[in-house]
Specification:
One of its GO terms (biological process) is fatty acid beta-oxidation. This is short-chain-enoyl-CoA hydratase. By secondary structure, the chain is an alpha/beta fold. 47% of the residues lie in helices and 16% in strands. The strands form 2 sheets. Strands 1-2-3-5-7-10 form a 6-stranded mixed beta sheet, with helices on both faces. A 4-stranded mixed beta sheet has the order 4-6-8-9. Helix 1 packs parallel to helix 3, helix 3 packs parallel to helix 4 and helix 4 crosses helix 5. The model has no long low-confidence stretch (mean pLDDT 96). Bound molecules: ligand A1D88.
């Protein structure tokens, strides 16, 4: 049975192909800024794919070549009451949490500028591949606010508190090469090659056991927050989940028969 994922809003498009769901933020006229309906649509998609094992990997990207996402919609924000701002911030933070806690691997295909919530969305992904012209930055302190969608926590865990403080305090925008050097992204490719490179990476990942991929993600995400021996105990439990799977038996069978395994995700 093929996956069935619908978007609540025309500002978020979803394409399903070969076990990959590609989620595109589609507001190019405002640099793919994230307004409330767009966030709610992303949350709904995350909730749906979480329970569709046919979706084995997700890619998030932005429409057009200019922007991945310019972050929170500042025009919408200017018209909000303080209470509405609180609702928005809660929603954008939970959106990034929804993305990060998806059981499937998530790749951010950073097709252009990613500022504020745009960088925070990329940080919620597992792997970040950027076009050479892309730029990233947690620029919120320019607006007398702070990264409120997980950026203070995820950036400091990814690149270290010292570098995270420098980028957040300065609100500096870094180009793709610098982002690669500091460990903010995994890869830089020419703009025209971004999606082919992401598709190739997805294909490379999807050659491997779906249950193993999900268990590896789960135990890295949660284990990294704990001290070593608790993490190792978590790894042991995650490994246990893989042992009874038919895929594990299929992998050994395929090795013996010198062929590629056909995994079913169970
Ligand atoms: C928890 C999360 C918090 C946050 O994310 S706070 C927000 C952080 N993001 C930002 O501060 C980025 C704000 N935008 C910009 O700095 C610039 O834009 C860019 C550098 C992204 C692009 O600059 P340029 O190439 O000169 O284009 P342009 O004329 O500024 O933008 C094109 C259209 O896009 C709209 N737009 C851009 N960013 C946003 C945004 N974040 N919210 C709402 N609209 C945005 C503009 O207004 C304009 O539209 P029009 O043509 O109607 O004037």
């Amino acid at each position: 049975m093929s996956a069935n994922v619908k978007s609540l809003s025309p500002t978020v498009q979803v394409r399903l192909q070969d076990h990959v769901a590609t989620v595109t933020i589609h507001r190019p006229e405002v640099m793919n800024a994230l307004d409330l309906p767009t966030l709610q649509a992303i949350r709904s998609i995350c909730h749906s794919v979480r329970f569709q094992p046919q979706v084995r990997l997700l890619v998030f990207t932005g429409a057009g070549e200019k922007a991945f996402s310019a972050g929170a919609d500042l025009k919408e924000r200017a018209a909000m009451t303080p209470l509405q701002v609180r609702e928005y911030i809660y929603t954008i933070r939970e959106t990034m949490n929804d993305i990060e806690t998806l059981p499937q691997p998530v790749i951010a295909a950073i097709n252009g500028i990613a500022l504020g919530g745009g960088t925070e969305l990329a940080l919620a992904a597992d792997i970040r591949v950027a076009a050479r012209h892309a730029q990233l930055g947690l620029t919120e302190t320019r607006l007398a606010i702070i990264p409120g969608a997980g950026g203070t926590q995820r950036l400091s865990r990814l690149i270290g508190a010292g570098r995270a403080k420098e980028l957040i305090f300065t609100a500096r925008v870094v180009n793709a090469e610098e982002a690669l050097q500091i460990g903010l992204i995994n890869r830089v490719v020419p703009g025209a090659e971004l999606m082919p490179a992401v598709e190739a990476l997805a294909e490379e990942i999807l050659r491997n056991g779906p249950v193993a991929l999900q268990q590896a993600k789960y135990v890295i995400n949660y284990g990294v927050e704990t001290e070593l021996h608790t993490g190792l105990a978590m790894e042991s439990k995650a490994y246990e989940v893989c042992i009874p799977t038919a895929d594990r038996t299929e992998a050994l069978q395929a090795f013996r028969e010198k062929r590629s395994p056909q995994f079913r995700g169970e």
